[in-house]
Amino acid sequence: MPRPNDAAVSLQRSASNWLQSRWYGQRDPGLLLRSLESIFRKAVTLRQAAYLGGKKPIERLPVPVIVVGNLTVGGTGKTPLTLWLADFLKQQGYRPGIVSRGYGGRKHRQPLIVGTDTTAEEAGDEPVLMAHHSGCPVCVFPQRAEAARALLAATDCNLILADDGLQHYALGRDIEIAVVDGVRGFGNGHCLPAGPLREPPERLASVDLVVHSGTGPAGSLVMTLLGDTAVNLLDPGQRRPLASFAGQRAHAIAGIGHPQRFFEHLREYGLTLEPRVFPDHHAYRRDDLAFAGTASVLMTEKDAVKCQGFSAPNLWYVPVAARLPAGFGEQLLTQLRTKTHGQETA
């Protein structure tokens, strides 16, 4: 008998597949979606004009703000890039704090600073992942400026990284970094709901740095994701090379914006998979993984932070780390020196 939320998950998956086929396939989005797109684009233009024209306030903070975001719906690698930035900036003497909307977590009436015992159910999967890996204070709240003020009041951070904040114009920023999916690009080039774009492609002309994930045009900044080891959820001290799963029956699950990227990453190490896609930010339950029996199940680390409560010996996650071109860090530091005159720096 189906569980209470099985129908909802199935409907969400079907709706997502239907949209993806139009956004990234060869299918025309149709007249209705194109009509709704026209309304969406007008709303985006009016909203941008309201902030840039001073009708809506933009809050400037007393420390530098770096925004990481993208133009499309779904995953492009923003979280690995944010973690790379946090580590790099710490090496340069900065004390970064990270703010995020906290998508997938509970709605809070005030900013929530992510602690060691904060769960993904409370704060969202990506903020918990960033807090665990970065060693930086992380705060979640839809109004990013309020989250940043909470960090500045409670910690000694002297720079703010805003994860997925490109369209959050209420937060003033010194540097904008846009991440572009090097494989899927902008899909059919349409804005929501006819296509995957949250803003028109020409928005890239106004950002400071554009990073292509996976691959990109000649001369572009390309970020690659490295991860050749699986970590056991039940015993994190137990690690296995991904190649050691080759020739075995293995399942792979992904509840992320672009699950095929994860599956292809595993196949590069010779794995023969039975993949299963869940909705982005899916709140896993033990029964979601019962289909695998005792066979190995590999998942992303973003999925793993939501499966810790029912870890089993056959559950593994694959952590990844971003690799950027050698000159990227220096470009970033040059932007910081140029754009943050008068603000606190390292």
β-strand percent reads 15-25%
The profile of the biggest β sheet is: 9 strands, mixed
- Rg of Cα set: 20 Å
CATH architecture of the largest domain: 3-Layer(aba) Sandwich
**Count of the domains:** 2
- What structural class do helix, strand and pairing data support? alpha/beta
Task: Give the CA-CA distance, first to last residue.
Answer: 59 Å
**Which residue ranges are poorly predicted, with pLDDT under 50 across at least 5 consecutive positions?**
none
- The largest sheet has its strands arranged as 3-4-2-5-1-6-7-8-15
- The helical percent reads 25-40%
CATH topology label of the largest domain: Rossmann fold
What's the gist of this structure?
With 346 residues, the chain is of the alpha/beta class. Helix content is 30%, strand content 19%.
Describe this structure in words.
- The protein is of the alpha/beta class and about 350 residues long.
- It has 2 domains: about 65-225 and about 325-340, Rossmann fold (3-Layer(aba) Sandwich); about 230-320.
- The protein has 9 helices and 15 strands.
- It has helices spanning about 5-25, 30-50, 80-90, 120-125, 125-135, 145-155, 260-265, 300-305, 330-340, and strands spanning about 65-70, 95-100, 110-115, 140, 160-165, 175-180, 210-215, 220-225, 230, 240, 250-255, 275, 295-300, 315-320, 320-325.
- The strands form 2 sheets. A 9-stranded mixed beta sheet has the order 3-4-2-5-1-6-7-8-15, with helices on both faces.
- It is globular, with a radius of gyration of 20 Å.
- The model has no long low-confidence stretch (mean pLDDT about 90).
